[in-house]
Design goal:
The complex is a heterodimer of chains A (115) and B (112).
Chain A: E1 4-7, E2 10-13, E3 19-25, E4 32-38, E5 44-51, E6 57-58, E7 67-73, E8 76-81, E9 90-98, E10 103-106, E11 110-114
Parallel strand pairs in A: 2-11
Antiparallel strand pairs in A: 1-3, 3-8, 4-5, 4-9, 5-6, 7-8, 9-10, 9-11
Chain B: E1 5-7, E2 10-14, E3 19-24, E4 31-37, E5 43-50, E6 55-58, E7 61-66, E8 71-76, E9 85-91, E10 101-102, E11 106-111
Parallel strand pairs in B: 2-11
Antiparallel strand pairs in B: 1-3, 3-8, 4-5, 4-9, 6-7, 7-8, 9-10, 9-11
Classes of the chains: A mainly beta (115), B mainly beta (112).
Chain lengths: 115, 112
């Protein structure tokens, strides 16, 4: 199946710093990527839909200035957590839709810990 | 956006037994997909079933879809300890943009 690469796998940072997470589709072009956040033993909460060449669409309650999403190419979307705080600590997962078959392929996730 | 809701939330079985988990959703769909997530990892796509299909098989997996009841089931036969994971269903939106959303998942533990 298609491969989505996400990194870093984990990051520890100090409060107030910004963290960038990359999501790449390695063997297909993804016009749409999704960013999710997941707390332990909870569901994936959709944060935003990232469309190549246009602004991301954020879900209600997700601060767009806090979680900056850039989808500059058909194979790369980035999520930047700006001025991270301990409450931003979570598992972040990206996914990409593979063409017309509508299957979602996921990155392996990024565990963010903000001290 | 749609949301699938899985049940049970947790399932504990012995190796070799079958595991069945269910998913319910609220409005019309084009397709429904099942995913598996090992702890601390991304999700792995298991199977996609379209709205005009009633049953689909893939190895030890069997998925059914009942659009009249807006529900789907995932059956794992002859379970193995390696099947221990969380399982999620996701639906798209019929006639609208594809924005998959997930329920809380079923946590499956298979004891060796």
């Amino acid at each position: 199946g298609a491969v989505v690469s996400q990194h870093p796998s984990w990051v520890i940072c100090k409060s107030g710093t910004s963290v960038k997470i990359e999501c790449r589709s390695l063997d297909f072009q993804a016009t749409t990527m999704f960013w999710y956040r997941q707390f332990p033993k909870q569901s994936l909460m959709l944060m935003a839909t990232s469309n190549e060449g246009s602004k991301a669409t954020y879900e209600q309650g997700v601060e767009k200035d806090k979680f900056l999403i850039n989808h500059a190419s058909l194979t790369l979307s980035t999520l930047t957590v700006t001025s991270a705080h301990p409450e931003d600590s979570s598992f972040y997962i990206c996914s990409a839709v593979s063409g017309a078959n509508e299957k979602l392929f996921f990155g392996s996730g990024t565990q963010l810990s903000v001290l | 956006s749609q949301q699938g809701e899985e049940d049970p939330q947790a399932l504990s079985i012995q190796e070799g037994e079958n595991a069945t988990m269910n998913c319910s959703y609220k409005t019309s769909i084009n397709n429904l997909q099942w995913y598996r997530q090992n702890s601390g990892r991304g999700l792995v796509h298991l199977i996609l079933i379209r709205s005009n299909e009633r049953e689909k098989h893939s190895g030890r997996l069997r998925v059914t879809l009942d659009t009249s009841k807006k529900s789907s089931s995932l059956l794992i036969t002859a379970s193995r300890a390696a099947d221990t994971a969380s399982y999620f269903c996701a639906t798209d939106a019929s006639g609208g943009s594809y924005i998959p959303t997930f329920g809380r998942g079923t946590s499956l533990i298979v004891h060796p």
